[in-house]
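Following up on my earlier message about adenosine-5'-triphosphate. Here are the inputs again, as you asked, copied directly from the submission form:
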Amino acid sequence: MSDHSNMFSSSASSSGGVSIELDAVSKVYPGQPAAAVEDFSMSIEPGELVVLVGPSGCGKTTTMKMVNRIIEPSSGSIRIDGRNVLQLPPDDLRRHVGYVIQQIGLFPHMTIADNIATVPRLLKWPKKRIAERVTELLETVQLDPAVFAGRYPRQLSGGQQQRAGVARALAADPPVMLMDEPFGATDPITREKLQAEFLRLQADIGKTIIFVTHDFDEAVRLGDRIAVLSERSRIEQFDTPGAILAAPANEYVASFIGGGATLKRLGLLPVTAASLTSADPARGLPRVAADDTLRDALDQLVRTGAAGLDVVESDGRVLGTLGHADISAALTATGRSEVPVP
Ligand SMILES: Nc1ncnc2c1ncn2[C@@H]1O[C@H](COP(=O)(O)OP(=O)(O)OP(=O)(O)O)[C@@H](O)[C@H]1O
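Thanks, got it. Here's what our run produced:
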C-alpha cells in the first residue's frame, strides 16, 4: 500500500472534515478561446458545506472537478488539509475525496454491497472490515442491509439508488465530499426527503463538502455558505444563506434569489429568534412549536387569522406569545446583524 493512502490519516480515520483552499484557479479547455473558470479563489473551513450555485454553463462543475483532479486546472493552486493536490497522485486523491453525481454512477453489474465496497477494496481493507462498513453505511442511509445489500442497482428506486450512491461515496470515510447535483434527478418530494436525510447525516459526520446545484432553494436549505457564481465561475457573493437573502450583493444575486426572499429568510429563522411577549392563557391562542421556523408561524397566523400564537417547548412549557409585528421585528434585527461588514 502506498504512503498516500494515509495522506489524510489524521482526519480520515475518524469522521470529520479538513480545509480546502483554492487560490487563483483557472481552467481553459483545449481549443476554447475563453476560460471556463477564471481566477477562482475560495477558503473552505473544515466541516463546512459550501454550495456553488449559478446558471447552466457558469463553470460550477468544472470548478468542483478540479478539486479531485477529474479536470486538471490550467493554473492556480488547490490545497486540501494544507497539501497541494496537484502534487498528489490523482488515483490516491480520488480515493480520499468522496464523489456523488446526479447520474449516481452505480456499477449496474455489481450488487449494492459490492458498489459500496469499491474504494475499501481498492484500499485493501480486510474483508471483515469491509463487510462491517457496508452494513453500517446501508443503515446510515436508511437502506435495510438484509433487503438491499444483495440487490442490483436496477432493482432500486431512484431515491434508493441516490442513497446507495451517498453510501458508496462515504465508504472509506473521506474527509472531503464533492456532490454534483446529487438530488437533481429525483422528484420534488423524494428530493426534499433526501435533502433532510442528508442534513441529518452531515450533522453527524461533519465532512467538508462542496455541493453544486442550480437550485437556489436547495442551496439555502443545505449550505453553511453559498457562493453565487456568474460566468467563468466569478463569485458574485459568498456568504451564509441568511446574509445573502437579507442583503444580496447586486442585481445579479437578487435576480438569482428570485421571488419570496423574505419568506425564504423566515424559513431559516427559528420561532425563538423573535422577541416574545408574555403569554396570557385566557386568550386561548393557537400554538406553534419552539423549533418551528418563523415561516411556519406566519403560515399559521395567516391560515388561522389569529392575532398571535403561543410558542411551546416540546415539554409543553409556554415560552411566550408571537404576533405579526414580532416577526417583522425579527427580520429587521437579523437583517442588520447579518449584513457583512465591508
Ligand atoms: N470538456 C470540455 N471542453 C470544452 N468546453 C467545456 C468542457 N466542459 C465544459 N465546457 C464548457 O465550460 C463551461 C463551464 O461548464 P461547466 O460544466 O463547468 O458548467 P456548469 O455551471 O456546471 O453547468 P451545468 O449547470 O449546465 O452543469 C461551459 O461553457 C461549457 O460549455
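One observation from looking it over: The first helix runs from residue 9 to 12. Hope that helps, and feel free to reply on this thread.
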